[in-house]
Amino acid sequence: MGSVRLIQVGLGPIGRGIVAQVAEREGMELVGAVDLDPCKVGRDAGTISGTERLGVEVSEDLGKVLNKEADVVVLATGSRLADVAPQVEMCVRAGKSVVSTCEELAFPFVAHPELARRMDELSREHGVAVLGTGINPGFLMDALPIFLTGICRRVEGVKVERFQDASTRRFPFQRKVGAGLSQEEFWEGLRRGSVGHVGFRESAHMIAEALGWRVERYEETVEPILAEEPLESRFVKVEPGRCAGLRQVGCGYVDGRRAIVLELQAYLGHPEPKDSIVVYGEPVVRWEVVGGVDGDVGTCSVVLNAARVLPSAPPGLRTMLDMPVIHWSRSA
């Protein structure tokens, strides 16, 4: 297989991290880059991503860049499918497969059935594949626990815990978990959609689909974690009584019982960061990374490891259930 030619759309922290990984990987070539930020337009994509010059100038014109010969467009522009869908459809009409960090695209058939149907039909019509993935959703809270059930005779439940010390994360993540907000600002941000993690519903339904379960009811709760002492990160100072972050739990009910539990604790100074999975069944399967997986590095890695094989995927709107086992490879 030759090099996978990529166009990167969106050069925020995740997009720049993806470009930096492309620069160091064999078998991948960046052929185009798009961002609307005037401070980035016209500059070399590698330079603004903290790596070597790649000879790829950032453009603000997605349509123009889509004229380049490329295998996959990597979209890192938003979490909400309604916002990202026009970009996805533009890429598909240009004959390009798409892998996106859009959380709602990871399993959109429940929350956005009509949009998912339209995107699937369009992708099939143009002979390309579309995939939403990342560290979560796309891997830690769905694809990985599904994979771990492979040794099970039966499965009764799945529990995933992702505990993060938010002080080590980038500013947009700290803002998303509400660090530094008052309680009133937290609840208002939650109402407006600027606070809280997107993708729990998608992960729960992906797990259920894989295991042959029907989710009868899905519930999700979000609550602030309040600082008990002064806390600070490189970006935020938090006084006692203000929000250090959040606890978010998504639960899927199957056959009248809580069968899928997904929990995120992300706040400044979390004393026990970790990622853990328990598959309840025969046997009980336990997996854990003490200290937790770096979310930004993990997202960039999952996206590129998926992009490596996406050109070979059947046309249509795909999920991680449709993909071969995603893994790192020394070459394309």
Quick tags:
332 residues, alpha/beta, Rossmann fold, Dihydrodipicolinate Reductase, domain 2, 7-stranded parallel beta sheet, 15 strands
Rg, alpha carbons: 20 Å
Please, how many domains? 2
Largest sheet: 7 strands, parallel
Q: Which consecutive residue ranges, at least 5 long each, have pLDDT under 50?
A: none
Largest sheet, order of strands side by side? 3-2-1-4-5-6-15
What would CATH call the class of the largest domain?
Alpha Beta
What do the pLDDT scores average to? 96
Number of distinct helices: 10
Element-by-element helix/strand order = EHEHEHEHEHEHEHHHEEEEEEEHE
CATH hierarchy: architecture of the largest domain: 3-Layer(aba) Sandwich
Topology:
Elements: E1 4-9, H1 13-24, E2 28-34, H2 45-48, E3 58-59, H3 62-65, E4 72-75, H4 81-93, E5 97-100, H5 113-126, E6 129-132, H6 143-148, E7 154-165, H7 171-176, H8 183-192, H9 200-211, E8 217-226, E9 231-232, E10 237-238, E11 243-254, E12 257-267, E13 274-282, E14 285-290, H10 295-307, E15 316-318
Parallel strand pairs: 1-2, 1-4, 2-3, 4-5, 5-6, 6-15, 7-12
Antiparallel strand pairs: 7-13, 8-11, 9-10, 11-12, 13-14
Task: Describe this protein's structure.
With 332 residues, the protein is α/β, with parallel strands linked by helices. It contains 10 helices and 15 strands. It has a 7-stranded parallel beta sheet, with helices on both faces. It has a 6-stranded mixed beta sheet with strand order 8-11-12-7-13-14, covered by helices on one side. The termini are close together. The relative contact order is 0.16.
